Amino acid sequence: MALNKVMLIGNVGKDPEVRYLDSASGSANATKVATFTLATTERFRDRSNELRENTEWHNIVAWRNSADVAEKFIRKGTQLYIEGKLRTRQWTDQTGAKRYTTEVVVDNMQLLGKRPDGTGAPAQASYQAPAQASQPAPAAPVEPIDISTDGPADDLPF
Description:
By secondary structure, the chain is mostly beta strands. Helices cover 6% and strands 46% of the residues. It is built from 1 helix and 7 strands. A 5-stranded mixed β-barrel has the order 1-3-4-6-5.
């Protein structure tokens, strides 16, 4: 069994770069890919009780319909929730050295925070990649049950 799952909440570092593969730029049957960076910041107190921050930058790759969402709605500073998987690529640069990069390939993406128009309402655009035939459909979300209302009518022996 193997699991390759990444969940991130962070802010977009730059406007997405959108490219078209497979055919002429922008044609109906071209494959669209959007790339951008996402910053996640961890805040903690060190031993001297000073507040510290550690920011990690993630390379994000969105394909097809999720690239459409990225192109239309995502800009620098947008707060996002990303679900995806890690992928490491290798290539040879112009000097002949082997280079590597690790990316998060988007499966699910949701815009968080305020709308760019300043209305204060949260942005609600999201995209979830269609499940592949070999993967089971995700389970429906389960609503939490409030157990604080259990009273003396509870007949459990423990």
